[in-house]
Amino acid sequence: MDTTDTTAPFTSHQLLEERIRQLEEENVMLRAKLEHATQTNGNQTSFIQANENPPLPVSTLSDTAASAAVSYEGILNPTQIERYSRQLLLQGGFGVQGQIELQNSKVLIVGAGGIGSTVILYLAACGVGHLSIVDFDDVDVSNLHRQVIHKNQDVGMNKAESARRAVHDLNPTISCSTIQGPLTESNALELIQTHDCVVDASDNPLTRYLINDACVLSGKPLVSGSAMGMEGQLTVYNFREGPCYRCLYPKPNATEGSKSCADNGVLGPVPGLIGVLQAVETIKVLTGVGEVMSDRLLMCDASQCSFVRIKKPPKQPQCPACSGTIRSMKDSYQASQSARGPSCSVQRQAPEVSPQHETSVQEYHQIRQRGDPHILLDVRVHEQFDLCRLPGAINIPLSSLTQQHLQLVKLVPANLPIYCVCRRGIASAMAVNKILQEEIGFDPSAVHHIVGGLDAWRSQIDKSFPQY
Ligand SMILES: Nc1ncnc2c1ncn2[C@@H]1O[C@H](COP(=O)(O)OP(=O)(O)OP(=O)(O)O)[C@@H](O)[C@H]1O
Ligand SMILES: [Zn+2]
Fold this sequence. Notes:
Layout: H1 12-39, H2 45-50, H3 63-67, H4 78-83, H5 85-88, H6 95-103, E1 106-110, H7 114-126, E2 130-134, H8 159-170, E3 175-179, H9 188-193, E4 197-200, H10 205-218, E5 222-228, E6 231-237, H11 245-248, H12 261-264, H13 269-287, E7 296-301, E8 306-311, H14 329-335, E9 358-359, H15 361-370, E10 375-378, H16 382-387, E11 394-395, H17 403-411, E12 418-421, H18 427-438, E13 447-450, H19 453-460
Parallel strand pairs: 1-2, 1-4, 2-3, 4-5, 9-13, 10-11, 10-12, 12-13
Antiparallel strand pairs: 5-6, 6-7, 7-8
The structure holds adenosine-5'-triphosphate (ATP) and zinc ion (ZN).
Adenosine-5'-triphosphate (ATP) binds near residues 183, 202 and 207.
């Protein structure tokens, strides 16, 4: 800058302003040159359009850089900038660095069901570089009201594969792999070790403990969520010095496994809600942006639209996982054996019933065809009974099968044989045991349960019986 012609000397403030003005002029000229260069080089046009301020250091914007091949090494490419621009503009520290962190991250998602559907879609859309999806199950038509990653034409396809296809359709610039089988004690550690973060979108306690223990053994953060009915929960375990799942629940709880979506129902969007929040937490874990839900647990009740955050206890010195008592996945498996309880996905076992109290669906079909007098006691919950039932059945849910009810059943048509039925033959076996234990004067030989329940009735006797 030449100041010799001036009548009065510039103040340092004026000098600074003048310098800024000159730099702005230079910047405009350089931009014009760069735009000119990109007009003759079509593949850079989107860069100019997507970026008012290209993230190149000004010093590299020389004449030569503008006309020759520009090296964008180390920063996002034009396609990425265009795709993630709204996220990149986010105030509060996400920016290019956050996007690069996502791009370089690998996330393992266990379960591509109700919760997994939204976690996977959002992580893919936001640009997590690699997603690995584990699920052993196939898409069922009853999944579609909430497992929105799958479509009608995916029914019958493995869920991990169906989800991978959806990921590809949504964002082909990231990579996605599948494990089309269960996560078990044999593969959990190996799989988890190679990822930066794990999302538990499964639905049963055994899997939750396996994932947790493998995360503790390999030092990986675990973003955990669950949903049922109108309610859901969310938290992050094993993040930095935060507690793990076993710190809160050292051993499987006897009643936890008895809750199942298939038995209790779930409103379509509720798992999706939890999944969306899990995606947010995963992004926070990966990028360091925001405050990770490590010391709190979110409890959400969609029926009230209520969200409550409760403080979690800190890492427990006596926690079997954190204290090192569980040293391998074999230890983990043994410590979780009692978690093999009922769940949405892991097949439940009927309690033992003596063979004399068991009736096959074929035998029961014959009883009906002959018109033999009997009581058909359907022990499913009222909601299931209302969906569909065999003609003539009376409904007393297993949970209310008290002595009083049994007396009633006995009084109505005296001394008739009782056939207990439920969906799969598990609750009906429990009902038989309960009736036999009550000792209220039933002829034990007249109490039966229908093996395989209404599922077996549908598959072996009448295919028109609804599936749910
Ligand atoms: N150990 C595991 N390995 C892999 N996937 C698992 C494991 N445990 C559970 N899952 C999967 O997690 C998902 C949980 O999702 P969700 O409960 O919404 O689905 P669902 O089992 O299809 O439900 P429904 O009870 O309606 O049949 C399921 O797809 C299930 O197959
Ligand atoms: Zn712990």
